[in-house]
């Protein structure tokens, strides 16, 4: 299951949530049928399966987008309520340093039994996969021997690597209320070839900061920082790397768990634009993280 091109945000604005969950239910049921057929074919009882989730290239912005997180959590609730006994192990591979933070945001929707089936690896995952999965079944690019009939080691005949959904395909975008019409929204202007910091004052330990923003036209770059001050200087430590986002069709959102009090900041950067200033509408929410949010 490659996450690099998994565009959950695009799904949210292109397909009704109920239709996504209906299709996933169909896939889960098909998995059960395939295990039943394999049991008859081999004479062995096959009731569980293993998942391999490749998060290589899955950016922090993708992972913490509020709409994507909400959709992912709906999928987890569906699976947890109906199919948890079908999971043997889930291998998360090519895990970035921030992945535990992202996983913590979904832990409230998972049982302790399910969480114990998760195994996290960086780049050193192949030996672990081969200890559980036959080399002739495991695709070659994951350390096994399996290839497509044409020799493709990525086995694209059985693995859908997906792709980003173009914003012009967001069929549900007109059902989304413009952010500027909501209560509690602030507007700032970011001049051309310039940037603006929006400071966020966190007064307690283990707080969840959530934000949403949009621009009336074109894109804007955004990052998340922690402000450091001493007697002679002010610096900003990067927590979420800058990334240009298309937020003029539907709002963009994000989440970050702040482990300590302090001043944090969203940076809206328009430095790449030679001609146009940008208006940015945004709203920010700070709340106490739950115990499940912060446990490691």
Automatic annotation (TrEMBL):
Pfam families in the cross-refs: CRAL_TRIO
UniProt domain GOLD: residue ranges: 167-286
PROSITE patterns to which the protein is assigned, alphabetical: CRAL_TRIO (PS50191), GOLD (PS50866)
GO CC entries: cytoplasm
Coiled-coil ranges (or none): none
Domain CRAL-TRIO: 1-150
Protein name: SEC14-like protein 2
Species the sequence originates in: Stegodyphus mimosarum
């Amino acid at each position: 299951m490659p996450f690099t091109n998994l565009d959950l945000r695009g799904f949210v604005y292109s397909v009704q949530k109920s239709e996504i969950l209906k299709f996933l239910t169909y896939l889960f049921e098909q998995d059960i049928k395939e295990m039943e057929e394999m049991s008859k074919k081999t004479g062995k009882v096959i009731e569980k399966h293993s998942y391999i989730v490749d998060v290589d290239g899955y950016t922090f912005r993708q992972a913490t987008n509020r709409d994507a997180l909400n959709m992912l959590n709906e999928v987890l609730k569906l699976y947890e309520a109906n199919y948890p006994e079908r999971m043997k192990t889930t291998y998360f591979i090519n895990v970035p340093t921030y992945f535990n933070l992202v996983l913590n945001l979904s832990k409230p929707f998972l049982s302790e039994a399910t969480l114990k089936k998760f195994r996290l690896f960086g780049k050193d995952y192949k030996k672990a996969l081969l200890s559980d999965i036959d080399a002739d079944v495991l695709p070659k690019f994951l350390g096994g021997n399996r290839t497509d009939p044409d020799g493709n080691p990525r086995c694209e005949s059985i693995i859908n690597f997906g792709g980003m959904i173009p914003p012009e395909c967001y069929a549900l975008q007109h059902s989304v209320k413009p952010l500027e019409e909501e209560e509690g929204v602030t507007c700032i202007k970011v001049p051309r070839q310039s940037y603006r910091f929006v400071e966020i004052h966190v007064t307690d330990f283990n707080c969840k900061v959530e934000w949403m923003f949009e621009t009336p036209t074109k894109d804007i770059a955004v990052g998340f920082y922690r402000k450091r001050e001493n007697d002679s200087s002010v610096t900003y430590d990067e927590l979420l790397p800058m990334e240009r986002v298309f937020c003029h069709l539907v709002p963009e959102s994000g989440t970050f768990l702040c482990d300590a009090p302090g001043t944090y900041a969203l940076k809206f950067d328009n430095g790449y634009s030679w001609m146009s200033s940008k208006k940015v509408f945004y709203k920010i929410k700070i709340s106490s993280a739950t115990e499940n949010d912060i446990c490691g």
